[in-house]
């Protein structure tokens, strides 16, 4: 890993840093930082002592870390007090993720490193983690994720690991003028497919490449996100984020995760969260006559 990456992360004044990268990139970044600072690490896939009860598990690590932090406080922060006497093996996926974070809080690291902090969490746990990051955590936290959508939900500075460069992402939406729209061509191997605007759920731009999503299937298009907005705004598409354009006919719900973090739920893909920039919330409410 380049030393410039390391210095960029360590010298940043940001308390919360989030990085879009794959598993290999996350591992390289993590192992490089471990040479410089103490890390508390929550990996994407965690192993647990399944037979231990939740409180027992945390007390074990508190002793191992010689922690001065309160186990009870860590459980309360991650909303695990009600599961104190539950065997770890009986916890659901979201509870186990929160348990892993509580464990690493007891380590009192200089930086808490969390891989995929929101992936596959239930809505209650997702809201809890976002609120903890934004309002309550006094720790310096770095997270990594392969999902750009989830990255944009997280409060703090956003980066992408592009080849050998750590590139900062702009989380603010752009307002662009409307223009006529029409059918959208995409390439699928040696075929050219054409979609009506009403078929498209949303479009997203990742590292300069734009893809549209139709019934959960992704297709690469040669158009930029700006060009798509120019063509689709008349069909009810809304630029909810710098990198996202959503078909408002497909939107089922506006979710406020925390004071500064919003998302849109789709009728067609209930498990998908589309980021909504804070600066576009009022415009969305005007569209909905709220």
From TrEMBL:
<dbReference type="InterPro" id="IPR046947">
    <property type="entry name" value="LytR-like"/>
</dbReference>
<dbReference type="InterPro" id="IPR012046">
    <property type="entry name" value="LytTR_ABC"/>
</dbReference>
<dbReference type="InterPro" id="IPR027417">
    <property type="entry name" value="P-loop_NTPase"/>
</dbReference>
<dbReference type="GO" id="GO:0003677">
    <property type="term" value="F:DNA binding"/>
</dbReference>
<dbReference type="GO" id="GO:0000156">
    <property type="term" value="F:phosphorelay response regulator activity"/>
</dbReference>
<dbReference type="InterPro" id="IPR007492">
    <property type="entry name" value="LytTR_DNA-bd_dom"/>
</dbReference>
<dbReference type="Pfam" id="PF04397">
    <property type="entry name" value="LytTR"/>
</dbReference>
<protein>
    <submittedName>
        <fullName>LytTR family transcriptional regulator</fullName>
    </submittedName>
</protein>
<feature type="domain" description="HTH LytTR-type">
    <location>
        <begin position="184"/>
        <end position="290"/>
    </location>
</feature>
């Amino acid at each position: 890993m380049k030393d410039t990456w390391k210095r960029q992360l360590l010298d940043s004044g940001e308390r919360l840093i989030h990085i879009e990268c794959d598993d290999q990139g996350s591992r390289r970044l993590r192992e490089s930082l471990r040479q410089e600072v103490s890390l508390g690490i929550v990996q994407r896939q965690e192993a647990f002592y399944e037979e231990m009860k939740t409180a027992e598990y945390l007390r074990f690590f508190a002793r191992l870390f010689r922690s001065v932090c309160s186990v009870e406080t860590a459980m309360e922060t991650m909303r695990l007090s009600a599961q104190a006497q539950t065997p770890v093996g009986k916890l659901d996926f979201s509870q186990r993720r929160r348990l892993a974070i509580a464990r690493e809080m007891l380590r009192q690291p200089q930086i808490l490193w969390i891989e995929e902090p929101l992936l596959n969490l239930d809505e209650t746990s997702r809201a809890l983690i976002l609120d903890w990051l934004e309002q309550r955590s006094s720790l310096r936290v770095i997270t990594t994720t392969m999902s750009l959508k989830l990255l944009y939900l997280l409060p703090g500075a956003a980066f992408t690991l592009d080849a050998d460069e750590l590139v900062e992402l702009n989380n603010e939406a752009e307002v662009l003028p409307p223009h006529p729209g029409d059918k959208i061509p995409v390439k699928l191997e040696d075929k050219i497919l054409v979609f009506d605007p009403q078929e498209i759920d949303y479009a997203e731009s990742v590292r300069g490449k734009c893809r549209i999503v139709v019934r959960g299937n992704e297709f690469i298009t040669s158009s930029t996100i700006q060009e798509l907005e120019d063509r689709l705004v008349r069909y009810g598409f809304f630029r909810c984020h710098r990198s996202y354009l959503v078909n408002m006919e497909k939107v089922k719900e506006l979710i406020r995760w925390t004071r500064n973090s919003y998302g849109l739920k789709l009728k067609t893909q209930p498990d998908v969260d589309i980021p909504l920039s804070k600066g576009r919330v009022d415009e969305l409410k005007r569209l909905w006559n709220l």
